[in-house]
Amino acid sequence: MDGTDFLSDRAFGVEIEAVGFDPYRANSILMDSSRPVLLRCGMTAPQTPPDNRFEFWQIMHDDTVKAGSHLPPDAVFELASPISQGANGWQDIAEVMQAMFDHGALVNDTSNLQVQMDLRDVWENPALRLAVKKAITEIYIVFEPGIDSIIRPRPYRHRYSRPLRDYFEPGKDGRFALQLVCDEINRCNEDDLEKLFTWPNAKPAVKFRGYKTAEYRAHQGVLNPDRALGWLALCQGITEAGMQIAQGLSSLDLMMESAQNPTTPDESLMCLLQFIGKPGLWPLLHAPEMMPRSAPVSMKPLKNTTRPGARLGPQLFDPSRPERG
């Protein structure tokens, strides 16, 4: 089975954080492939993004990513993909990840892979939007030991992707009381739910953003498209399961029953995959973070690229700053 068979029609985006060179070098690599690019760093004044900015690859500097002692401090970058969908959208992202790796990009303990899942189909219905937020949050918390089993521990990154279970006190017996936590979440209105996952100087592993998305923040940086595809499909499966619960097409009781049997993180992960109907994701979720290093190659432009603004990239690049290689 092709890994993209695990993807639904729900739109998504990814944010790739990496080290090895600065955003201007990343921009040059993308420009060689004729992709629409919006460079959002190094401007003398804040750049106002165009209304259709989500049709571009966006490149920026990320202060939360640290290059390390063996690289220049500014040899870090973040790539945010355009709004994408299905196998074709994923292929574009996979080619960009491969090209960045082939040109020398790396990941480390401070880099991250964030996934944005589109919630525009429920966002304008306040009651349904809240129900979806609650259901996604509960699914993530119930199966968090399994999710954490595929995420390399990164204490530094907990400022930016704190486990959801950290926001709750354990029960009197010292164990995590799933039912009590779910009950507390179910009593929340939208403001209370936001406050529940507010921690000084930290962001939760799942965050609902004003861009009408669910943002999954916990995964470490990767440049292996197989591993990234596994994480994307898992986040999409959690989102779709949350939709099903919110619309009464599935039940929290079924989810709680699925979570009662696991005794190890691996079992918890498999129970989650079975609950969302994607047990075949297991190999992708355990693929290595990095691919074997290959010789540098130039990116080939995608055939039949017809995104609006595809020729705007060169005008948005700041030629006044010399490129660094």
Question: What features would you describe in this structure?
Answer:
It is built from 12 helices and 7 strands. By secondary structure, the protein is α+β, with helices and mostly antiparallel strands. Strands 2-3-4-1-5-7-6 form a 7-stranded mixed sheet. The longest helix has 22 residues, at 225-246.
Any descriptors?
globular; seven-stranded mixed β-sheet; 12 helices; disordered C terminus; 325 residues; alpha+beta
Spell the H/E element sequence.
EHEEEHEHHHHHEEHHHHH
The major pleated sheet works out as: 7 strands, mixed
End-to-end separation: 39 Å
- Note the overall shape: globular
Average pLDDT score: 82
From the alpha carbons, calculate the radius of gyration and give it in angstroms: 20 Å
Strand order of the largest sheet: 2-3-4-1-5-7-6
Put simply, the count of helices is 12
**Strand portion:** 5-15%
DSSP E strands, number: 7
The poorly predicted ranges are 42-46, 295-325
- Which class of secondary structure composition applies to the elements? alpha+beta
| Proportion in helices | 25-40%
